[in-house]
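Minutes, project check-in
Item: structure for the 161-residue chain
Input as provided by the requester:
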Amino acid sequence: MKILPIVLLLSLALLGAYACSAPPAEKEAAPDLAQIKTEIQAMEDAYAAAENAKDANAVLPYYSDDAVNMPNDQPEAVGKEAILERIKKDMASDTTGGTIAFEVREVMAAGNYVIEVGKSMYTTAAGDKKTGKYISIFEKRDSKYVCIRDIWNNDAPKENK
């Protein structure tokens, strides 16, 4: 009989603790990776169109003000102004008259961040083709994605056998 009041008291204490606990956090909806991939591909298409038109200023909306760009065989460019200068220099030194295109291969998302893995395809005016790969990290700021970090390199030329 002495156990019944103790069990009853413990049960009430547990019930009270449960009633006073915070409600379970709502589970965050899984990101729509197909929609994000479409959005990032549109950004890559706009970047390629600006590159092909030799319009360095049109590339800038792709990047955040504090972006870091890590190009192939060049020092990193930190901030939009440094990235703009690098792009202008690259455009001025291009003598092949080629075009570039980007293909989003994969996106991974968590919260406000997206990691993109992609392929670049460059075709010279003479029809020679070069490929490369890249990774870009985007952050959603003011309801739109901007690139905060990117790095790329060219694929090695294929050996003639």
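Outcome recorded: The CA atoms of residues 130 and 157 lie 8 Å apart.
No further action items on this chain.
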